[in-house]
Design a protein that fits this description.
four-stranded parallel β-sheet, globular, binds phosphoric acid mono(formamide)ester, alpha/beta, 11 strands, 13 helices, 15% strand
Length: 364
């Protein structure tokens, strides 16, 4: 930012997210991302301050889960409690909702009606809907956007089949904490595919690529072969983000080691192949753990090629001995527990800003 006037305008401006849906960080401005992170840092530092204790007093946040979760459910429940409100858990499979699968015609309540009714009870709705609940890539995100269309309260994406904004924000917060609380611009992130027995979703990987490329990190994306190409629109967006910040974007195919050279952060995580929606989970896992994939694991040996202070990151649950060895996952480079904790803080910040009207003045 150039002139004195522009600088003053930026300093005096308050970031306001009241009523906003949070579907992906790509739909937030960089200033809005910074504001959420700034508030999350403050909330972490003064965790039980009276400042936040009544922000959602007597108010309800509905959590609608089409797929299970550990961290997301627990951290949102804790977040609502710490803001003085209540998080209500709903298992979508137990409700009389119309099927969200294009291939299944079923009687039941429409998203239109469900969304409008929930909006009469709550101040926000979180939704999780992953690939195993829908027929085609992107259908989960479409469901989420349909709820957003009809509910006149914020919809928070708790992970869909494309995006996972709360995870991306928690990752960045952890990466900053381990960079003396400074922005990570100019650092290098290796986002590497890993073998795995869980056929992992794209959402955390996409969100990491998107948010970190927005924030000026050099991105290296490594994976075995064309089967693991990520969707073209995501790659194009990451490329565009990197161009805008002047950062490098490199795709490394077929080499599980090269990307480690000089990396500052290593994010080793499985994702399923392009055929997943056709071949299903079992065939996917067989392909992903085949003999030719055995070297796609983050090890101490490989971490030695990275910068000395390189950190290992992962959204959890970790597939230990497939995605990463125990030594790395539980050793000094690992910041996964800090990141898991940060889910709570970024979600508190999101709820405070979108549901309780907290505005944030950006610090310099
Ligand atoms: N990282 C994450 O979303 O974890 P859960 O699937 O346990 O919620």
């Amino acid at each position: 930012m150039g002139s004195k006037e522009e600088k003053e305008k930026k300093i005096s401006k308050k970031i306001d997210l009241i009523g906003r849906d949070i579907i992906t960080t790509q739909e937030l401005s960089v200033e809005e991302i910074q504001a959420i992170l700034q508030l999350a840092f403050e909330m972490k530092k003064k965790r039980y301050s009276d400042k936040w204790a009544k922000l959602l007093e007597r108010k309800t946040f509905i959590m609608l889960f089409y797929n299970p979760s550990i961290r997301t459910r627990q951290s949102f429940e804790a977040a609502a409690t710490e803001l003085g409100g209540h998080a209500q858990f709903i298992d979508a499979s137990k409700e009389r909702l119309k099927s969200v699968r294009a291939s299944v015609k079923s009687a039941g309540e429409s998203i239109h009606d469900a969304a409008k009714v929930m909006a009469r009870y709550a101040v926000g709705i979180g939704i999780r809907i992953l690939e195993t609940s829908v027929d085609n890539y992107g259908d989960g995100n479409k469901v989420l956007r349909e709820y957003a269309k009809y509910a006149d309260i914020p919809i928070i994406n708790m992970a869909d089949d494309i995006y996972h904004p709360c995870q991306g924000l928690a990752d960045v917060m952890g990466m900053m904490e381990h960079n003396n609380n400074k922005p990570t611009r100019g650092k290098t992130l290796l986002q590497t595919w890993a073998k795995g027995a869980l056929a992992r979703s794209y959402c955390s990987v996409h969100e990491s690529l998107l948010i970190n490329s927005r924030l000026g990190l050099n991105i290296r994306l490594a994976y075995p072969d064309d089967n693991y190409d990520l969707p073209e629109d995501i790659i194009e967006q990451v490329r565009k983000n990197c161009k805008e910040t002047g950062a490098k974007f490199e795709i490394i195919k077929g080499d599980p080691v090269a990307g480690y050279e000089g990396a500052d952060y290593v994010y080793s995580r499985n994702w399923f192949s392009k055929d997943f929606y056709k071949i299903g989970k079992e065939a996917e896992i067989k392909r992903s753990t085949a003999e030719d994939k055995q070297n796609w694991i983050c090890t101490e040996e490989k971490m030695k090629r990275a910068n000395p202070d390189c950190k290992f990151i992962h959204p959890m649950p970790v597939d230990e001995d497939n995605e990463v060895t125990e030594e790395v996952n539980r050793g000094p480079p690992s910041i996964i527990m800090d990141i898991a904790e940060n889910r709570l803080h970024v979600q508190k910040a999101i709820m405070a800003m979108t549901m309780a009207g907290v505005k944030v003045k950006l610090e310099d």
